[in-house]
Amino acid sequence: MDRPRVTIFDTTLRDGEQSPGCSMNVQEKLRLAQQLDRLGVDVIEAGFPIASDGDFEAVQRISASLRRPIIAGLARACKGDIDRAWEALKGAARPRIHVFLATSDIHLNYKLRISREQCLEQAREALRHAKSLCVDVEFSPEDATRTDVPFLCQVVEAVIAAGATTVNVPDTVGYTMPEEYAQLIRTLREKVAGIERVTISTHCHNDLGLAVANSLAGVQEGARQVECTINGIGERAGNASLEEIAMAIRVRRDRYPYETGIASEHIYPSSQMLAEITRVPVQPNKAITGRNAFAHEAGIHQDGMLKNPLTYEIMTPQSVGVPDSRLVLGKHSGRHALALRCEQLGHPFERRELDEVYRRFVVLADRIKKVQDSHLLELIEEVRTARKKIPPAAASIPFTRVASAASGANEARPLPFPAAVSGAPGSISFADHHSEQEDYLWGV
Ligand SMILES: [Zn+2]
């Protein structure tokens, strides 16, 4: 039963905060850090202390207030940065200095203007200095995925000898491909002396939309730390998204026999808090945390969902803290979903009445994109009023398939529709089946 633990290193407050429009003040960072603690992340990268006084203060205050997670502070590979990071971190129960230095030729030649030999020496010295202050030291060879592989191995070996405890492999520019990244991790494990003593970490950017795939490929080759952010925020196209990593590992336990410390029911609240603080909304179709991630509009999907959520849902909204699975009522919605929503609004309908509601609903949905509950209530009122003018004998077959849908709705499943949706024998007439198939036409 013992599954290897993958350390979740959250850098929402550092890499994430660097993304345009996502800056946060100290108070906001502290609030989010507390939420990350509830979420169960193992490491919180709280900031880059040399970058600004605000960053310094945030790292210091987070270090002082959270005792469970490791608190990391970022530093370039130079004494001033490392000392400043340590100054901010030293009050932490579990501090970590995270040192980085670019290793690719393009960065060495054009950004740092140093030779490979100078790079190697600087990394070694920086590590020794950081290690003299803090037991837990992480090293990142920036732009690792575009670094000459033998040179990368040389640098990694040197920093391990100098005391690094975690070696991160950043795909800084979001350039790598899953199999290529996997190969890189494999090579490091095969070629670098002492690699078995350190934790290998992934840090992938999403420029080609592969950050999560690359991170998971790294994990499969032995990386045991993943650096990621809530909602995948970060430089340019962002970082690997924490919620996607955590849920991929959980939902596909068969393929990824690992565990994380993430309390998944805190995922959605964390995502919402970040969006609220930064005022950067989550894209609607964002996996796991987007507002449409658990919404089903197409008739065939809605019908299946109501019969058994497993038809279209690989995880429950509740498992990631989403309050309810929302069936969006639009013009592609079927009768079945409409009936349930009416019932949830306190208006169970019998068959013929429902037909009338449905007819009006389709006309309305054609005009407006989404039919809100308020619209529906108005429409129900209209139908009820019109109904009073018709003799009672006209009302006949009850719509048994949805009759008891609303009760028992507080179980683990989003919309726990009775298993015996087909009801008692004979309760669905040929006409029912026919209208059900009409629903399907909307959703194909
Ligand atoms: Zn980054």
Key attributes of the depicted protein:
15 helices; alpha/beta; binds zinc ion; 444 residues; 42% helix; elongated; 8 strands
Explain what you see.
This protein has 15 helices and eight strands. With 444 residues, the chain is α/β, with parallel strands linked by helices. The chain has an eight-stranded parallel beta barrel with strand order 1-2-3-4-5-6-7-8, surrounded by eight helices. The chain is elongated and about 90 Å long. The two termini are 42 Å apart. Zinc ion is lined by residues 15, 172, 203, 205, 234-235, 239.
Proportion of strand residues: 5-15%
Q: How do the helices and strands follow one another from N- to C-terminus?
A: EHEHEHEHHEHEHEHEHHHHHHH
**Largest sheet: number of strands, sense, barrel closure:** 8 strands, parallel, barrel
Number of strands: 8
Summarize the structure.
With 444 residues, the protein is of the alpha/beta class. 42% of the residues lie in helices and 10% in strands.
Give me the secondary-structure topology.
Layout: E1 7-10, H1 26-39, E2 43-47, H2 53-65, E3 70-76, H3 79-89, E4 95-102, H4 105-112, H5 116-133, E5 137-142, H6 149-161, E6 166-171, H7 178-191, E7 199-204, H8 211-220, E8 225-228, H9 242-251, H10 267-278, H11 299-307, H12 335-344, H13 351-367, H14 373-387, H15 430-443
Bound molecules: zinc ion.
